[in-house]
Design goal:
With 430 residues, the protein is mainly α. It has helices at residues 20-25, 31-44, 54-66, 69-72, 77-92, 99-110, 114-121, 130-145, 149-165, 172-175, 181-205, 232-258, 267-283, 293-302, 304-326, 336-357, 365-383, 393-410, 417-427. Helix 5 (77-92) packs parallel to helix 8, helix 11 (181-205) packs parallel to helix 12 (232-258) and helix 13 runs antiparallel to helix 15 (304-326). The longest helix is centred in the middle third of the chain and has 27 residues, at 232-258.
Length: 430
């Protein structure tokens, strides 16, 4: 865990002792450049982590740019921090001449550079706020995408304490009954973002989940009818779906794996748990359950936002199902067929994401890491396939999945040491 993946400190120090927030604001790009990066953020990131109320944010953003340079330097530090991390994440998805240039540009905007330094000027450790929590959630995802998984895990621990301190884990109708419905809704959405990030990061690195104490109720998240919020109702359905899945995953997969315990003790328990996951999946609204290449390409043509959400949800669901079927110990063997089927569905969502959204697939750390884990499990099962099964369609399809994953990783292997290492690992099975 300690060397996943970059060893250097993630937050480079560009700042002078007396510079203050004014020094941070001084490195903002032009309004035109900032608009481009924020548009990319709302196109690529916001669909799968819809925790920012866009209309309110745009009001704050436009007001900030309307201020004189003198008044901007007196702005809220947490708002400036949020600006910068959104610019940083937007930069990760912008087409630049080289991946190295994209990484260097993005790191300047976040790596304690702007966003973290603005949080420090805000004294965020002693005064958590909704904006600082949103900023920290995005910083954590940025660090993962930048191959700083260990740093992301550590930073997320501070984030979790901040979320608890702000009371986001509590039912807002109990702890803040005078809040408006929109304020309560926003608190629930931000808590769900913290909860979902913690749960699925725990799945990846097999360490204990921490977003475990809450009385926030999923059924209190209401459909937003504001016509100015594009796909508002769909976002609510996506949040509810991910929330339901994460609630099940946290106790049944994250906790036992973090203690090196079996997920299930016997085949009967496995069958019950699989049935529970399947009930969750069947309860998802369409199009989240419509998953094949033709349907996904058509969905992406109509709504790229909805297509991103469907692929992220599908990937998480089938990855967890694969882990359940692959779990084995003295009293329970691996269910090879079911593991292969779930792994194929999971990795196929990554392939489709790569096909539809091209370079974005290589940016999202957790999506690519899950796909690599799926390919590795498939490769192990192929390696240990029974004699005489070489022409079995299941194993032939599995080998195709491995080759396809290697091909995608090779696209970035020249400049990405993690991709290069993964290519080498999977190639050993071919």
């Amino acid at each position: 865990m300690s060397n996943l993946f970059k060893a250097e400190h993630p937050f480079s120090n560009y700042w002078t002792h007396q510079g203050g927030l004014q020094e941070v604001i001084g490195v903002l790009p032009s309004r035109e450049q900032a608009d481009i990066l924020l548009a990319k953020f709302f196109d690529a990131v916001d669909p799968v982590y819809p925790m920012i109320h866009r209309k309110s944010f745009e009001n704050d953003y436009n007001h900030f740019w309307s201020l004189s340079p003198h008044d901007r330097n007196r702005a809220d530090g947490s708002l400036v921090a949020l600006f910068f991390v959104m610019l940083a994440m937007g930069t990760q998805f912008v087409d630049l001449p080289s991946p190295e240039q994209r990484e260097q540009t993005a790191e300047f905007y976040i790596g304690v550079s702007a966003s973290h330094q603005a949080l420090r000027m805000f004294s965020y450790l002693g005064r958590p706020s909704m904006r600082s929590i949103q900023t920290m959630v995005l910083i954590t995802y940025f660090l993962m995408n930048d191959n700083h998984a260990s740093d992301a895990w550590a930073f997320a621990g501070v984030l979790q304490r901040q979320a608890y301190a702000l009371g986001l884990n509590r039912d807002p109708s109990i702890v803040n009954p005078s809040a408006t419905p929109q304020e309560m809704q926003q608190r629930r959405k931000v808590w769900q973002a913290v909860f979902m990030q913690d749960t699925f990061l725990s799945v990846i690195i097999k360490l204990p989940p921490t977003a475990t104490h809450t009385d926030v109720r999923i059924e209190d998240l209401y459909e937003e009818k504001d016509a100015s919020l594009e796909h508002g109702a769909t976002d609510t359905a996506f949040i509810r779906s991910m929330w339901s899945l994460a609630s099940l995953v946290q106790g049944t997969i994250c906790t036992p794996r973090s203690l090196d315990h079996a997920i299930c003790q016997d085949s009967a328990e496995r069958a019950r748990l699989v049935a529970h996951f399947q009930r969750i999946y069947r309860s998802l609204p369409l199009p989240f359950r419509t998953f094949n290449e033709t349907a996904m390409c058509e969905l992406a043509r109509r709504s790229r936002r909805l297509a991103r959400q469907t692929l992220f949800l599908t990937s998480n669901y089938y990855h967890c199902l694969m882990l359940i079927h692959a779990d084995e110990h003295e009293s329970l063997p691996c269910d090879v067929k079911a593991t292969m089927e779930a792994a194929h569905e999971a990795i196929s969502s990554y392939f489709l994401f790569h096909t539809i959204f091209d370079g974005e697939a290589g940016v999202w750390f957790h999506f690519q890491h899950r796909a690599f884990s799926e390919a590795l499990i498939i490769a192990e099962l192929v390696k240990n396939q029974p004699p005489g099964s070489n022409m079995d369609p299941m194993y032939l399809g599995a080998k195709t999945d491995i080759l396809k994953m290697v091909g995608i990783l090779q696209l970035n292997s020249e400049h990405d040491i993690v991709a290069r290492t993964r290519v080498a690992v999977l190639s050993n099975y071919l």
